[in-house]
Write a structure and sequence with these properties.
Length: 93
C-alpha cells in the first residue's frame, strides 16, 4: 500500500512540475504589456489600410458616362449609317 501511495504521490508531483514548466515557458496574457498590444493592432490596421488603398487605386474604375459611350456606336459611324437613307428620302421628296 505504501508503495502504491508513493507512486501516486510521485506521479502527482511530476504532473505539477510539468504544469509549472509549461507556465514558465508560456507568458500569461496578463504579462503582455497593453501598449504592445495597441502597437501591434495599429501596425496591422495601417498595413491593412495600405493594402486596401493599393488595390483600390489599381482597379480601373469606369464612370457611368464612360460605360454609356462605350455602349453606343461612334458618332461618325452613326452619321455614315444614317446619311445614305436620308439622301434617298431627300431625293424622293
Amino acid at each position: 500500500m505504501d508503495n502504491l501511495r508513493e507512486k501516486l504521490q510521485q506521479k502527482q508531483q511530476e504532473k505539477q512540475q510539468g504544469k509549472q514548466n509549461d507556465e514558465i515557458d508560456r507568458p500569461a496574457i496578463r504579462e503582455i504589456d497593453p501598449r504592445a498590444v495597441l502597437a501591434a493592432t495599429l501596425v496591422i490596421a495601417i498595413v491593412a489600410a495600405g493594402v486596401g488603398l493599393v488595390i483600390y487605386t489599381r482597379r480601373r474604375r469606369t464612370t457611368l458616362a464612360t460605360r454609356f459611350q462605350d455602349a453606343l456606336p461612334d458618332i461618325d459611324e452613326l452619321r455614315a449609317s444614317i446619311r445614305k437613307p436620308l439622301e434617298r428620302v431627300v431625293k424622293a421628296l
